[in-house]
């Protein structure tokens, strides 16, 4: 499912869905995977931040709630980050990957997403949201 949105595999029409289950439990695993990658490039490790987990959870829930992979749900990415006091944050999103390892691998394989993974950030938050009968939506927020 690499680059699901680019391949047209992500849902294209936004419509209300049943309430999504949201989890930030995979954040530590994501940090381990991303930090190993960053270390291989001589970059400092990221630490999991509860506030960024909450920001990621909000967006993952919003995407699952309307069954749409997009940075622009809820007023757009830039407005969302400003609302949370994170004007220099980066965000990666994904859809359809069952595991955090698959999701991180897809981000590494995408030049734009990979660029976010190696920016000079120090904190990260990750969340996964799944509504009944749907595949997972993922959100990663990285910030200084």
UniProtKB/TrEMBL annotation:
Identify the domain of life.
Bacteria
Q: Where in this chain does the record put each SCP domain? A: 32-126
Q: Which PANTHER family match?
A: SCP DOMAIN-CONTAINING PROTEIN (PTHR31157)
Indicate what this protein is called per its UniProt record: Cysteine-rich secretory protein family protein
According to its UniProt entry, this protein's organism is Phreatobacter oligotrophus
């Amino acid at each position: 499912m690499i680059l699901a949105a680019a391949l047209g595999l992500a849902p294209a029409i936004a419509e209300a869905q049943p309430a999504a289950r949201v989890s930030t439990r995979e954040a530590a695993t994501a940090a381990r995977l991303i930090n190993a990658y960053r270390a291989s490039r001589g970059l400092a490790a990221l630490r999991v931040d509860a506030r960024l987990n909450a920001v990621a959870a909000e967006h993952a829930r919003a995407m699952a709630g309307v069954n749409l992979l997009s940075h622009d749900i809820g007023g757009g990415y830039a407005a969302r980050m400003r609302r949370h006091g994170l004007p220099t944050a980066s965000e990666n999103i994904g859809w359809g990957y069952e595991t955090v390892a698959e999701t991180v691998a897809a981000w590494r394989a995408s030049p734009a997403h990979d660029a976010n993974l190696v920016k000079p950030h120090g904190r990260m938050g990750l969340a996964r949201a799944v509504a009944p009968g749907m595949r997972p939506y993922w959100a990663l927020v990285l910030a200084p």
